[in-house]
Amino acid sequence: MKLQIPYGKISGYKVGKILKHFVVDVEASKTADLLALNRKTVDAYYNLFRKLIYVEQKTAFTKLTGIVEIDESYFGARRLRGFHMKLKRGRGTRKQPVFGIYQRDGRVYTEVVPNCSGVVLQAIIEHIVSVNAEVNSDGWRSYDGLVDLGYDKHYRVNHSKNEWSDGKGHHINGIENFWSFTKRRMQRRNGVRKTYFELFLKECEWRYNRNDEQMESELKKLLSQHIKRQRKERN
Asked: What's the predicted TM-score (pTM) here?
């Protein structure tokens, strides 16, 4: 992924203002108006911030431990051009499936998947989740056999029977809250183009469970590191 500092003579003060607006989720067009900047300049910085976040989320990875929740969700328009019926929700839909893993009181990991078969999801789980973790899921059949893979602390809630928690702390409320958070952000933007969807997902991972102060501090650090790398490459 190519990362460059956007062109144009703009002060460090203005860059800091753009960053603050990005952190509090102000749309680029509104940020441009508020700061009296060209919309293309703001778009370029917003895009850079998202790419920095994407790279950080992809590379700063350690296997998830403790208590994790796994679930899949589906993203896309309610209707497709040429398809005259409302798209089905959930499993069996024509929408894009995404698999998510949430470490309680920790990070979220998401991955766009071709389907939600056991082969696909279990391969991701083996790569991302430590076998020592406690795994919470719903009753989807793709999670059958996790115990055979070494996940002997696998607990399930049966949503088809309106079971949302077993009363012993076993549930997937955290990852479901993340899906709701992500879809609300998408709705505010009237959807996200397919080419930017993974960037959007990684940004949502990063934003979830972080406050504005944490996000601002982390993004400033990522931007500073990126500028130093670019200067080093030019010298």
From this structure: 0.85
